[in-house]
Amino acid sequence: MLIKRPRGWEIKEARATPEAVFHDRRRVAQALGLGSILAGIGEFGALGSALADEADPSAGLYPAKQNPAYTVAMPLTPEDIATKYNNFYEFGSHKQIASAAQELKTRPWTVKIEGMVEKPMEVGIDNLLKAMPLEERLYRHRCVEAWSMKVPWSGFALKALVDYAKPLGSAKYLEMYTFVDVKMAPGQRSFWYPWPYVDGLTMAEATSEMAFIATGLYGKPIHKQNGAPLRLAVPWKYGFKSVKSIVRFAFTDKRPKGFWEQLQASEYGFWANVNPEVPHPRWSQAQETDIGTQEKIPTLLFNGYAEQVAGIYKGLEKERLWA
Ligand SMILES: Nc1nc2c(c(=O)[nH]1)N[C@H]1C(S)=C(S)[C@@H](COP(=O)(O)O)O[C@H]1N2
Ligand SMILES: [Mo]
Which of 7, 27, 57, 174 is most buried, taking the most CB atoms under 10 A from its CB? Predict the structure, then answer.
């Protein structure tokens, strides 16, 4: 069922004059076939320094067309809340890491695809973005700490990247790794954490319809604090599975141990599917606080995506599927 809702961030976008000017200019240039010429002379030159911070070569790809199959039955979280309350331990072990995360350098950004694949490869983020079918999806996002948000990601199905990577039949899991750079990310100086941040999925999960790579948020390139330039979004699992700022995809036949599982296996396991009836060892998972409205709402099995993903777990009932 498609529920039509006002898309608040788009209205804001239209009012933000410099960006609106940029989008129009880009569209005119594309219509005239001048896209690459403008790119060659520096797209932001004519707009002055106001846009210096926004100089992201992928900006013209957004907003991507919304896929009406993926909407949420509640108001979206306002952009300035979803981008100012974050988990990103590379920049601090608290929620106010947004300004520290501006140190993240997202260009050049090379993505390695390796392990059990026909041919290992490296691809620059902007070439990858050109090769992938971009769309927008409204997703729920539920942290194991019992807060949640509802956000408009843009990006592509992880399955598209798996197809592009050509894994061997022997590959059983896909691991995703974040960068390591202690200069950029001061949190990585905390030696008691097992850097780099990593987590993984089974091939069935990675190629399922909900598994998404987010490269945009609120109709723009994704914010640094939310995991620019590409992060995983697997909304039926607790948020810690959704690795940010990925530099390496590795196909393997060994079950990966995620960052949090390495730290505390009794509390954070491999599957980590959302289930309101299975409490965390230290707190209930029956409810969650929506960080946009501050309302307590009931948590749903598979975070509301049972219809799309429950089939993946048939025959796996003996596994510790829930935390
Ligand atoms: N590299 C990296 N990825 C990460 C984390 C992190 O600390 N480092 N935190 C995870 C957790 S616990 C959550 S809830 C989500 C938070 O994503 P958000 O800040 O975009 O809401 O990112 C996940 N991905
Ligand atoms: Mo989380």
Answer: 174
Distance CA 192, CA 183 (A): 17
Cβ contacts of 254 within 8 Å, gap of 6 or more:
172, 173
For residue 254, the cross-strand partners are none
User: Does the CB atom of residue 241 touch ligand 1 within 6 A?
Assistant: no
- Structural contact between residues 253 and 171, judged by C-beta atoms closer than 8 angstroms: yes
For ligand 1, pick from 84, 85, 88 the residue to mutate: most ligand atoms within 8 Å of CB: 88
Task: Tell me the whole-structure pTM to 2 decimals.
Answer: 0.86
Domains of the chain: 13-313 (3.90.420.10)
Query: Tokens for 176?
Result: 């995703």
Task: Judge contact between 72 and 138, C-beta under 8 A.
Answer: yes
Residue 50 CA to ligand 2 centre (angstroms) = 34
Atom of ligand 1 nearest to the CA of 143: 14
148 Cα to the center of ligand 2, angstroms: 9
Structure tokens at 167: 């894994």
Cβ partners under 8 Å of residue 96, min gap 6: 84, 85
- Tens digit of each residue's pLDDT, the chain (323 residues): 555 444 544 433 333 333 333 344 344 444 444 444 444 444 334 443 444 455 899 999 999 999 999 999 999 999 999 999 999 999 999 999 999 999 999 999 999 999 999 999 999 999 999 999 999 999 999 999 999 999 999 999 999 999 999 999 999 999 999 999 999 999 999 999 999 999 999 999 999 999 999 999 999 999 999 999 999 999 999 999 999 999 999 999 999 999 999 999 999 999 999 999 999 999 999 999 999 999 999 999 999 999 999 999 999 999 999 98
